[in-house]
Amino acid sequence: MKYTVSIEIALPRERVAQLLADPEHLPKWLRGMVLHEPLNGVHGQVGTKSRVVMQMGQQKFEGTETITRREPVDLREIPKESIVHFDREIVTKGMWSAARERLTETGPETTLWESENEYRFNGLLMRLVGLLMPGAFRKQSLQHMRDFKAFAEHGTDVRQTAG
């Protein structure tokens, strides 16, 4: 299953990239985050593997995230014409996923965040989930993007909001 979602954020691309890359901010906008800890390497750097635990309702999911691309490496003074890339793969029981994030400057104070997502399912149960509920994955990705936008633009913390 593949899909792409996008959102425009009213901040300069460099600031958006820095906020997305900062592990201290993850719990503020990534709804359901319980834990995100590097197993090796440095958070956000190519090759780093991290243990990720997410809670969604009564379900707890644990997986391993691997950073596969980060360009540019230095998120300060990003050249105007550059597109920022953050790519990662996550492996959990019954599922492999990849997210390819692109940040493009659409104006001096606006950034387009595009997220291309791919999922592969193993086992009957996960294949059924993917087949019967593909819209749920897209909806969840959009919710994460909206939560990030609210955090980046207004300081809204998902841990302090209902729903």
Q: Would you kindly provide a brief summary of this structure?
A:
This protein has 163 residues and is of the alpha+beta class.
Give a description of the structure:
This protein starts with a strand and ends in a 9-residue tail after the last helix. A hairpin with a 2-residue loop joins strand 3 and strand 4 (59-71). It has a single domain (2-31, 69-153), classed as Alpha-D-Glucose-1,6-Bisphosphate, Chain A, domain 4 (2-Layer Sandwich). Helix content is 26%, strand content 44%. 15% of the residues are buried. Strands 1-7-6-5-4-3-2 form a seven-stranded antiparallel β-sheet. The chain is of the alpha+beta class.
How does the helix and strand content classify structurally? Answer: alpha+beta
For the sheet with most strands, the description reads: 7 strands, antiparallel
**Total count of strands:** 7
Q: Look at the structure and give the mean pLDDT.
A: 91
CATH class: Alpha Beta
H-E order: EHHEEEEEEHH
**Distance N terminus to C terminus?**
27 Å
Query: What order do the strands of the largest sheet run in, or round the barrel if closed?
Result: 1-7-6-5-4-3-2
Protein name: Carbon monoxide dehydrogenase subunit G
Pfam families: Polyketide_cyc2
